[in-house]
Each structure stands twice: as structure tokens, then as C-alpha cells.
Amino acid sequence: MTQPPSLSDRLRRGDVLAAACPSREVLRHVTGRWAVLILIVLEEGTQRFSALRRRVDGVSERMLAQTLKHLEHDGLVARVSHAVVPPHVDYTLTPLGEEAAAHVRRLADWVEANVPQIVAARG
């Protein structure tokens, strides 16, 4: 029989299944529909806001800004504002963001590879 993790182990790692665990908020930010797509695009390199909006088809300006703000707050995306007219802002993945992007890209790849089976299961 396996022993449940000790309290110190849970505190060190976090407990995503617990409602009060801070990892829940990060998980929500990273796995949101728009965040997954933004992270995948940013894996290709630094992007301006307008380029991200064009690449992530269907995202509104408001949702793109909100999602980038969450990802920046979580330390996954770096925002660099250039003092020029008109304003020029670049977004790039941090090292932590690169790691997160690799994980969500693998999930997105799995989804795309299995779409025919998933659609068929829906009936």
C-alpha cells in the first residue's frame, strides 16, 4: 500500500487538487484556450501584439491583452515596451515560459493527432 504524501511534501510541491492551492490559478492561466495558442506562437520567437492577434485566429483584443497580462504576471511571458511613436511592444517567452510552451504544445499536438477519433467518439 502506498503512503499518502506527507504534509511537507505537499507544501513543497503544491496540491493542485486542493481548492486553495495557488497552482490552480497558474494551471488555469496556462491551460486556457488562448494561453495555449499564445504560448505555441511565442515558441517561434518574439512577437508584437498585432502579430499575435493575427496569428491566434478568433482572439479578441481584450482577451489577448488579458491573457498576456496573466502570463506575464506568472513569469511566463516578458513584455518589452519600446519608447517610440506609435507604441511598440514585444512579447517573448521567459525560460519558464519556454518550458510551459513545450508542455502545452505536446498536448495540442496530441489533440490534433487524435481529432478524428475524438470527433467519432462524439457520435
Would you mind describing this structure in some detail?
The chain has helices at 7-13, 23-31, 33-42, 49-55, 61-73, 95-122, and strands spanning 47-48, 77-82, 88-93. A hairpin with a 5-residue loop joins strand 2 (77-82) and strand 3. Helices cover 60% and strands 11% of the residues.
Total of domains: 1
Gyration radius, rounded: 18 Å
Task: Specify the helix fraction band.
Answer: 55-70%
Count of alpha and pi helical runs:
6
In terms of DSSP E residues, the strand content is 5-15%
Approximate shape: globular
Taking pLDDT < 50 over at least 5 consecutive residues as the criterion, the unreliable ranges are none
CATH architectural name = Orthogonal Bundle
Measured between the Cα atoms of the first and last residue, the distance is 40 Å
Mean pLDDT: 91
Order of helices and strands: HHHEHHEEH
> Biggest sheet, strands in spatial order?
1-3-2
Q: What can be said about the biggest beta sheet?
A: 3 strands, antiparallel
Name of the level-1 CATH class: Mainly Alpha
Number of strands: 3
If you consult CATH, what is the topology? Arc Repressor Mutant, subunit A
Give a concise summary.
With 123 residues, this protein is mainly alpha-helical. The chain has a single domain (22-122), classed as Winged helix-like DNA-binding domain superfamily/Winged helix DNA-binding domain (Arc Repressor Mutant, subunit A, Orthogonal Bundle), CATH 1.10.10.10. The chain is built from six helices and three strands.
